[in-house]
Design brief:
alpha+beta; 1 helix; about 40% strand
Length: about 160
């Protein structure tokens, strides 16, 4: 009877250890899925949002969001990143319908937390009407794309 009395607390301790270990394993699997989210790069920085519009505020965020532009518009993009790195490279590649590169701009960032980077394109003679795509690359890997259109205003 004495051996049975001392074995019960040992069995409870083992069960408790297994429960704690299994909880830890589940958390590691969740974190691994988060790390592999779209927009992730080999660095500790990931793109969390890309927005297009006609203007940006002092915080570099879009203040007039749209995907429909007029030929004379300056087209802005706000790229939001999260994470930290001493050196990460963002590239904005703007293309026309057939894949022709209209503009490519690179910005080197050293983010610590949430950071907003602004890109823009303009054309004094006006943009040809049609469909365009903005592709955002982080450290050489495409992580986001946004389609938009340029249309001439309707004649009255």
């Amino acid at each position: 009877m004495h051996q049975l009395h001392t074995a019960a607390p040992l069995a409870r301790a083992c069960c408790l250890a297994l429960v704690v270990a299994s909880l830890g394993c589940g958390r590691d699997q969740t974190d691994a899925r988060t790390d592999a989210a779209p927009g992730a790069s080999a660095s500790a920085v990931r793109v969390t949002d890309v927005e297009l519009g006609r203007s940006v505020g002092a915080d570099r965020r879009i203040s007039d969001a749209t995907v429909d532009f007029r030929p004379g518009d300056t087209i802005y993009a706000s790229v939001v990143t999260d994470g930290s790195a001493q050196n990460a490279t963002l590239l904005a590649r703007w293309t026309f319908e057939d894949g022709q590169v209209v503009d490519e701009t690179t910005r080197t960032i050293a983010p610590s937390g949430t950071t907003v980077t602004e890109f823009h394109i303009s054309r004094p003679s006006g943009w040809p009407s049609g469909r365009y795509t903005l592709r955002v690359l982080l450290d050489g890997t495409e992580v986001e794309s946004k389609e938009f259109e340029v249309r001439a205003p309707a004649a009255n």
